[in-house]
Amino acid sequence: MTINQLLEKNLILAIEALYGQRVDQAQIQLQPTKKEFEGDITIVVFPFLRISKKKPEETAQDLGKWLVDNTAELKSYNVIKGFLNLVVSPAYWLQVLENAYNDQQYGIRTAGENAPLVMVEYSSPNTNKPLHLGHIRNNLLGYSLCKILEANGNKVVKTNIVNDRGIHICKSMLGWQKWGNGETPASSGKKGDHLVGDYYVAFDKHYKQEIAELQEKGMTKEEAEAVSPLMGEAREMLQKWEAGDQEVRLLWKTMNSWVFAGFDETYKRLGVSFDKIYYESETYLFGKKKVLEGLEKGLFYCQEDGSVWADLTTEGLDQKVLLRSDGTSVYMTQDIGTANLRFSEYPIDKMVYVVGNEQNYHFQVLSILLDRLGFSWGKGLVHFSYGMVELPEGKMKSREGTVVDADDLIDEMVSTARETSLELGKLDGLTEDQAKDIANMVGLGALKYFILKVDPRKNMTFNPKESIDFNGNTGPFIQYTHARIQSILRKVEESGITPSEKFDTNLNLSDKELYLIRLITTFPNIINDAAEGFSPALIANYMYDLAKEYNQFYHDYPILKESDTSLRFFRIMLSDTTSKIIRSGMDLLGINVPDRM
Known about the structure:
Blueprint: H1 3-19, E1 30-32, E2 41-44, H2 49-52, H3 56-70, E3 74-80, E4 83-88, H4 90-102, E5 117-121, H5 133-151, E6 155-162, H6 167-179, H7 185-188, H8 192-216, H9 221-227, H10 229-242, H11 246-270, E7 276-279, H12 280-296, E8 301-302, E9 308-311, E10 319-323, H13 331-345, E11 350-356, H14 360-372, E12 382-386, E13 389-390, H15 406-423, H16 432-452, E14 460-461, H17 464-467, H18 475-495, H19 511-521, H20 523-532, H21 536-556, H22 565-588
Parallel strand pairs: 5-6, 5-11, 6-7, 11-12, 13-14
Antiparallel strand pairs: 1-2, 2-4, 3-4, 8-9, 9-10
């Protein structure tokens, strides 16, 4: 039982003993005491004035005295207006610290046999271009969310849907056919996803040139786009693909294999993985079948050109196309098929889509359509909508080739991390292999932390220079704190000191030490809140708070040089537990921490 749970229970008993009435637990408000006041936990007494029929200060005095007299874990109390500040006994905090120190999985809940199964979809790349900065935020959020949900006692399936068919794929295929001259990843020395992306950009370049030429002949832009020969060829290729044309399918498989190999390299470098990968080319037919079944049942309607639509006006939305006039599918069709397939393969309790906020409308429609088609789980889908990520220079555009490539960004981060670490002497005494490992760890840690510390629902600007800083709210600062503690623990081991001896529970601890313990006790709650709120940012910013508080403690108080044996053991234990939580918490963000730096 946590101290908050104990206080809630005893507060109910106090009110009944003092005023002869029982209160509902929902009326109880507990909050951390503000730093400017003495205390650990504050109780708001205003909800109880109707029962006590006394002034706020008098009610707080009554409750404070009763609680301290009847709760061994409390040391004292004070009253500030209508707020009762309770001081928890240092002996209690020491016991909590010892429990955390001895629990190797502190804060982590293991999924039981009947734990809910949550499927999380993230990444969702297109096979016409390499992964970019936007994909990085998606992958980091999705992977971290999976780890946090798992740590909160859920079973989790990490899944990816690869958009490997459609007009955009045909554009890169047609571009390669026309201007590729047989170029391959092997012959060019390029990663496959980069090579295919080059031809997507090439297609767009030639298409824009073609539109400009048609406009010069007197056409409007809309007229030019409607008769564009190049776009016509791309549409024809898509129709051939859906008809199973052998030549088109062979080219499609070849170019996709290049892209998949490139994706796998990037995923490995990012440290993300999947339990199951779905491909749009394999799921869109399931969706098409369901749409046609819905058409037969009168759930959808057909326009004169043969296209199939859903009328969503009764839900306050508009009309939504589900099948084009030529019979080809749209994203919505694919998502219906993929959802149907997933729920038939897994006993999913919750389905979470990690997709940018520009798709809010799409997932609103998807939920309605699945429900209309009779899927009981349709309304329960969760769209984890996150904001866009930009660079200080502004937005990125895939078609124009101005995106920030994921591989290039990772290279830049690792290179900058090595330069910065060398300048600060963080790599002194390390072998070349060790230095490489540290640079990679710090570079990726900086990238991941900078992105994950931001509320996922907000748009953000990623600044590579700001992210690699060994001071402030950054990944390297937290990583260095862990390395610092590990250095202390190595010296402890070398000196033969062990923190296993019982320390005096009546130790006279400083406010800084008590605050650090209180911060440690909130780690399980932070994990729970992050899982329920779908927010890795809560974990990230808690990590910074913990590292910052530890560094202040480290600066102000001796550890190995402390002459009081019991106090020295306590500080070693405090350091070790902090290190363990940093490692565990950063792991939930997909970030590794070094033991030396």
